[in-house]
Design goal:
The chain is an alpha/beta fold. The protein is built from 9 helices and 13 strands. Belongs to the bacterial solute-binding protein 3 family.
């Protein structure tokens, strides 16, 4: 084979070789099923990320951490992206278009007298991390005066405490609450059997649109382009449907 022929063959081999995808380090808060199912390394939001970056030079790699720590690590450059961010919550990050809509609700038992947001000032309240920043100024001012208010990283424990009467009110995204409640129904702790009959939900907060945050603008722009295509061709809605859900934020279960 002539020299030009060998050179051409070498060039073709170089360009035909598969590119090695680089990891995209994504910080994910502890299990918030069906959005994030930690022990299965999947969920609506994880599947959206994987689908969006399929065929790119990045492969999402998920690290499960407390929500507060994901924010800190992104700002320190130890992560490339995090999920579930609102504008104004981060500095030096590139936010995607709105990815998902959550509807946070207050859940109580039927014996708890609950009528308005002001009742959260005196009850034992358990909320998700960063609820103060997400749920508005009025909410933050009320719970700041409540010594029995807490924010926790693991939501399963919140639902369990409510069903056992160990807290008065739980603030949680509706799909997450009902996912965990379904897991607990029929189980017992000591002589107490978990039951959903006494659970009441209260609609105090408007739906919240969340974005994903990226350290690099190129990754954010890629994700936005692909997410728009997924919404247009139906893949976005099919990912929700795979978990028995839809992208609609409308009430999924009314109080008895």
């Amino acid at each position: 084979m002539s020299y030009p022929g060998r050179l051409l063959r070498l060039i073709l081999l170089v360009f035909a070789a598969p590119l090695v995808a680089e990891p995209l380090r994504v910080g994910v808060s502890f299990a918030i099923p069906p959005y994030v199912i930690t022990h299965e390394d999947r969920g609506i939001e994880l599947d959206l990320l994987r689908e969006a970056f399929a065929g790119s030079d990045h492969v999402p790699e998920f690290t499960y951490l407390p929500l507060e720590r994901t924010f800190r690590m992104l700002e320190e450059g130890k992560l490339d992206a995090i999920i579930n961010v609102k504008p104004g919550m981060l500095n030096n990050a590139h936010l995607s278009q709105a990815v998902i809509t959550f509807h946070n609700r207050v859940f109580t038992l039927d014996k708890t007298a609950f009528h308005t947001m002001r009742d959260l000032q005196t009850l034992r309240v358990s909320a998700f991390q960063r609820a103060r920043q997400i749920l508005g100024k009025e909410f933050a001012e009320l719970v700041d005066q409540n010594p029995h208010y807490e924010e926790v990283a693991r939501q399963e424990g919140q639902v369990q405490k409510l069903l056992l009467g160990r807290t008065d009110a739980v603030i949680l995204e509706q799909r997450v609450f009902y996912y965990y409640m379904t897991q607990l129904l029929g189980q017992t702790e000591g002589s107490v059997r978990y039951s959903s009959d006494r659970v009441r939900q209260h609609d105090l907060f408007p739906p919240t649109q969340y974005h994903f945050a990226f350290r690099q603008a190129t990754a954010q722009r890629w994700f936005d382009r692909q997410l728009s295509r997924m919404k247009e061709d139906g893949r976005y809605e099919r990912i929700f449907a795979a978990y028995g859900a839809s992208s609609s934020y409308r009430n999924i279960k009314a109080s008895p």
